[in-house]
Amino acid sequence: MENYNSNNSGYNNSDQNSNHADQYNNNMYEPYPADSERPPMGPLKHSGPGIASFVIGLVAIVGYILIFFIASMTLNNSIGVLSPLQAEELALHPAVVLASLSILVCLIINLAGGILGIIGLVLKNRKKVFAIIGTILNGIMILLFVGLILVGMTLM
Please, are residues 17 and 27 in contact by the beta-carbon 8 Å criterion? Predict the structure, then answer.
């Protein structure tokens, strides 16, 4: 008669290898852990939205600097001792209007960069360095814009 407890039969394999998770499982390997429990295979990648947020923050800062430089160079000859009527005309100068619209465009770019930075912070299994820096850059620029509006409102 045949021995049913031998290693090559499947009737009773409890004494084959007690290390595997299921006594009725005949393979010698542990089952794979769930994807959320599995450690990353290699080094972590930088998050794409985080890098985009960082680049957008840098581009917006350069944009603000260029806007103020170009507007100040254009208005340099126009500014002097101004009467109230001349000050009102200066506010409608094309360079001032263009600078104002450009600052609003940069603000919208900062808002998009802030949203991308937050998305980059939420992603799992990614490096968050660029997302943190991009969120901070864009957030500071938005806060400075809000502060500029508040200062302008108090001076009126």
Answer: no
